[in-house]
């Protein structure tokens, strides 16, 4: 299964360890993560060599080419919000996960599209169970 | 002209004075702001009485019913990102404005849709000129 992983880049990088954990879990369950760079510590250096248009085209095309999208939405991010909507427009199932208690947008929590599911987690075990369920659906 | 104004709500409310300035400027230029509540100091209390689904349906419907969208994208916001993409999907011209130097998403800065324009401002005069240009197009 080809998964586009979405996480905050310019909105704040404090959750990189969680992003890495999600990506590692999905990879260990036979998924290919198209956007593994999102959890890279050197991402911003890599993307600095690309134009803004190249980054936009790359990310939107990758979403279109994916089977499903997993978004970590704890850290507010304009890019992640855009990507979730782009995925919905292309009929991709999107799992949004977030730390319990985080102030998550109503565009995510209240999303009435059948493609979007939003589930909080209290610890890594819960997060993994949620990811596992999403893969088995 | 009916304008949907998008600004950060749960992502952070520090730019409410700017949101108010934009809304007042647009209203003084014969625009109706459908989503004036975005700049309300009591918004979160009002929305607390609605379900997440009601907020989602209200905001997406308002975008669909608008003529154009103005988004202030300085503060990272998953909701604003979602709304910009939703507006593009419905062929609404979207003006994204941001404080010069802000770390704005490549989904905005590099957006290759003909509907999205992103312009920084250094002061209120520049911001007003950008809004004026958008209205005259």
Automatic annotation (TrEMBL), chains A, B:
<dbReference type="GO" id="GO:0009116">
    <property type="term" value="P:nucleoside metabolic process"/>
</dbReference>
<dbReference type="GO" id="GO:0070694">
    <property type="term" value="F:5-hydroxymethyl-dUMP N-hydrolase activity"/>
</dbReference>
<dbReference type="GO" id="GO:0009159">
    <property type="term" value="P:deoxyribonucleoside monophosphate catabolic process"/>
</dbReference>
<dbReference type="GO" id="GO:0009117">
    <property type="term" value="P:nucleotide metabolic process"/>
</dbReference>
<dbReference type="InterPro" id="IPR007710">
    <property type="entry name" value="Nucleoside_deoxyribTrfase"/>
</dbReference>
<feature type="binding site">
    <location>
        <begin position="105"/>
        <end position="107"/>
    </location>
    <ligand>
        <name>substrate</name>
    </ligand>
</feature>
<keyword id="KW-0546">Nucleotide metabolism</keyword>
<feature type="binding site" description="in other chain">
    <location>
        <position position="19"/>
    </location>
    <ligand>
        <name>substrate</name>
    </ligand>
</feature>
<dbReference type="Pfam" id="PF05014">
    <property type="entry name" value="Nuc_deoxyrib_tr"/>
</dbReference>
<protein>
    <recommendedName>
        <fullName>Putative 2'-deoxynucleoside 5'-phosphate N-hydrolase 1</fullName>
        <ecNumber>3.2.2.-</ecNumber>
    </recommendedName>
</protein>
<feature type="binding site" description="in other chain">
    <location>
        <position position="83"/>
    </location>
    <ligand>
        <name>substrate</name>
    </ligand>
</feature>
<dbReference type="InterPro" id="IPR028607">
    <property type="entry name" value="DNPH1"/>
</dbReference>
<comment type="function">
    <text>Catalyzes the cleavage of the N-glycosidic bond of deoxyribonucleoside 5'-monophosphates to yield deoxyribose 5-phosphate and a purine or pyrimidine base.</text>
</comment>
<comment type="similarity">
    <text>Belongs to the 2'-deoxynucleoside 5'-phosphate N-hydrolase 1 family.</text>
</comment>
<keyword id="KW-0326">Glycosidase</keyword>
<dbReference type="InterPro" id="IPR051239">
    <property type="entry name" value="2'-dNMP_N-hydrolase"/>
</dbReference>
<keyword id="KW-0378">Hydrolase</keyword>
<comment type="subunit">
    <text>Monomer and homodimer.</text>
</comment>
